[in-house]
User: Which sequence fits this backbone?
């Protein structure tokens, strides 16, 4: 029996469990859109207003669910717009499929309107990158693309000339869903026992864990409690162990805590689980290390390790917990608990200081305190990330998504859209700066259109605030960082949602109570004061940079620059 190639391609998608595609229609994907029209009961086509949002939403779907995210666009300009979100998926190692249109096959290589060599365009971002030239091969290659994206946790791109899906083909292809299985690595108990012996014989072991423990939250909690281990979580893994767990030292690095930095330096054994942490200057490379990861290419990649275990974190930690003898006490842990307790008191001082307008640190603390236990957080890049890391107390019962490795501004709104579509019964809170919001604000209308009642909070200070402090720490004068004054509350209302302008802490507290469970998309345009997102530990080169900035500011402008409270600076530096 003959079937249309487009219908068979869509059939492959449904067999793999795809039930939503983010994208924009257009001339070079019209045939594919027509096929989606015929399966509206199986696959939702979420029509966003910018292709970047489509790709970022697909990436967020993959991060939140662990399943394949799918986006679609025309060739040429639409394909180019996809790149940012696809790189986000690539760098955060999540599976995304991009279906990209192209001019009709007979027009290829004629320099036709909107003809772009997408195969070259996507060469770096994709683990699988094909252009379809034979209609009969379309379902097979679609199946192969999906398998590759899932197995390699990366981006697959199919470029499809618009005439190809319109052909009639033989109905003789069966997707490889039932016989597809991710490789399970056998755990070697001898390795586990050697690692346990190292943990017993070292007095100062510390855990550095990443998103690889996403499915091993309870096992990790049991592991650190049984062996009395302080833990540091990478930024994308925030909340996988409760932020307020007494053993949790927060994050490491510029967005981290001082106790995490100090206890890493005092460690004599580093246990890395499910992480490819890139900031090697913050790692203690002088001591022994154990690493657990399913990916062999990550073992020993960032530093030398004594024991490398290629296995699933959940299964490995289960064996650790079954085979080892509990540690009764560990002075190193006691010191870590004391230091993080002191740090939390310092952070209370920060968000309790006198101020005008809305203080970002207090804002994050208040919304964290009032958020439901099953909240999904979608946090943008910049000061949102910094204050989220420091003042938002995430729980293991919640979810937390960011653009971790690419660090692309504008990720919070697409992340919130994906989160609410994937988990419609859970509260979704997105937080972004005014710079990030300005990049994607048109798609607040998408949240309204599809009745996705998210709470979207904008830190509005008419400034690229994170860049402000980056420039200062580098010893440079602030330049090119001001933003236009935009009333985002009115933008939200114009899109059909609810918008409120917030100018005081009390107004913010009232608003987050009022919209704890909103019935339609809500945007709070918060007039925040400019508060410095200081590093947890100010390094010497940063101290020199701040000093140079201050001295040059006096010479250039004849006045002292505005500085954070000296108490906060000294706590981070000394």
Assistant:
């Amino acid at each position: 029996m003959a079937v249309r190639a487009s219908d068979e391609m869509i059939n492959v998608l449904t067999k793999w469990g795809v039930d939503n595609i983010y994208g924009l229609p257009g001339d070079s994907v019209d045939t594919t859109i027509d096929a989606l029209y015929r399966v509206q009961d199986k696959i939702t086509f979420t029509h966003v207003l910018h292709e970047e949002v489509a790709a970022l939403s697909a990436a967020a779907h993959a991060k939140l669910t662990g399943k394949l995210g799918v986006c679609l666009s025309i060739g040429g300009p639409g394909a180019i717009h996809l790149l940012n979100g696809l790189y986000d998926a690539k760098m955060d190692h999540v599976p995304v499929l991009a279906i990209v249109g192209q001019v009709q096959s007979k027009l290829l290589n004629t320099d036709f309107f909107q003809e772009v060599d997408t195969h070259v365009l996507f060469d770096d971002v994709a683990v699988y990158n094909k252009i379809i030239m034979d209609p009969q091969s379309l379902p097979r290659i679609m199946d192969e693309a999906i398998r590759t994206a899932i197995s390699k946790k990366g981006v697959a791109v199919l470029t499809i000339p618009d005439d190809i899906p319109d052909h009639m083909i033989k109905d003789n292809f069966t997707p490889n869903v039932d016989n597809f299985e991710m490789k399970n690595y056998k755990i070697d108990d001898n390795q586990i026992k050697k690692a346990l012996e190292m943990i017993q014989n070292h007095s100062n072991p510390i855990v550095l864990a990443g998103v690889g423990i996403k499915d091993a939250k309870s096992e990790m909690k049991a592991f650190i409690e049984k062996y009395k281990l302080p833990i540091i979580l990478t930024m994308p893994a925030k909340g996988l162990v409760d932020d307020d767990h007494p053993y949790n030292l927060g994050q490491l690095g510029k967005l981290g805590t001082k106790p995490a930095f100090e206890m890493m330096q005092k460690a004599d054994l580093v246990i890395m689980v499910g992480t490819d942490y890139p900031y090697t200057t913050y790692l203690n490379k002088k001591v022994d290390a154990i690493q657990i990861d399913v990916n062999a290419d990550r073992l020993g990649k960032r530093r030398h390790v004594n024991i490398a275990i290629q296995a699933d974190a959940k299964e490995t930690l289960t064996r650790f917990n079954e085979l080892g003898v509990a540690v009764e006490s560990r002075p190193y842990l006691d010191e870590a608990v004391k230091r993080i307790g002191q740090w939390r008191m310092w952070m209370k001082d920060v968000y309790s200081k006198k101020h005008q307008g809305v203080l970002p640190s207090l804002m994050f603390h208040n919304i964290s305190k009032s958020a439901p236990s099953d909240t999904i957080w979608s946090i943008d890049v910049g000061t949102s990330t910094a204050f989220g890391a420091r003042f938002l107390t995430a729980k293991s019962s919640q979810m937390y998504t960011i653009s971790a490795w690419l660090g692309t501004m504008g990720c919070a709104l697409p992340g919130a859209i994906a989160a609410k579509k994937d988990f419609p019964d859970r509260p979704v809170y997105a937080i972004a700066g005014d710079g990030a919001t300005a990049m994607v604000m048109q798609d607040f209308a998408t949240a309204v259109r599809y009745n996705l009642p998210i709470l979207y909070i904008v830190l509005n200070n008419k400034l690229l605030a994170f860049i402000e402090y980056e420039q200062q720490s580098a010893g440079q004068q602030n330049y090119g960082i001001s933003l236009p004054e935009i009333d985002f509350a009115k933008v939200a209302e114009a899109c059909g949602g609810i918008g409120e302008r917030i100018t005081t802490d009390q107004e913010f507290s009232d608003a987050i109570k009022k919209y704890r469970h909103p019935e339609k998309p809500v945007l709070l345009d918060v007039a925040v004061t400019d508060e410095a997102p200081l590093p947890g530990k100010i390094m010497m080169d940063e101290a020199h940079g701040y000093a140079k900035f201050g001295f040059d500011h006096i010479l250039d402008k004849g006045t002292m620059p505005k500085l954070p409270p000296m108490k906060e600076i000294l706590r981070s530096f000394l």
About this structure: The first helix runs from residue 5 to 15. The CA atoms of residues 208 and 317 lie 14 Å apart. The two ends are 76 Å apart (CA to CA). The first strand starts at residue 2 and ends at 4.
